[in-house]
């Protein structure tokens, strides 16, 4: 009698879940297809049956957050006011990062992920548009720096194991409040002394 097999979609998800855990522990470059296969409990060939490469796995792991970013961008783009657009983008990004806390580890400081996102045209369009909308048409040096502090800070806090005792709703509310201060129009364009 043949052994029952899992549907292909379930097998793909198991590979993605294992990869996410390994990428969070070791980074993309520090994780191998063999490690992913071992974590799932299958052969490396079984992983290759689902995905062509580790990079394809990493892109699929990132896809839910990129799709979320694209959705937030579409909402923000219809707003006529730049400040309102930024508010929607900031709160949407924070909500996404908090919802995908484990995934935010990948966005914070893994050069492999940075390169994959830059090299994947579909993802690059989303990240470039996000930056354009957040910076506005003529960002000054202080605005550009504040935006980078916001983006890296939100991901870093969400990924920080020392913050795991903070519930999602408290983390999200506090990040929105702090981001509003950091990206405040009162400070926009203010010279840095």
Automatic annotation (TrEMBL):
Transmembrane segments: none annotated. The keyword Transcription applies. Residues 32-51 bind DNA. The keyword Phosphoprotein does not apply. Residues 9-69 form the HTH tetR-type domain. InterPro entries: Homeodomain-like_sf (IPR009057), HTH-type_TetR-like_transc_reg (IPR050109), HTH_TetR (IPR001647). One of its GO terms (molecular function) is transcription cis-regulatory region binding. Keywords: DNA-binding, Transcription, Transcription regulation. Signal peptide: none annotated. It holds the Pfam family TetR_N. PANTHER family: HTH-TYPE TRANSCRIPTIONAL REGULATOR BETI, HTH-TYPE TRANSCRIPTIONAL REGULATOR RUTR. This is TetR family transcriptional regulator. It comes from Mycolicibacterium obuense.
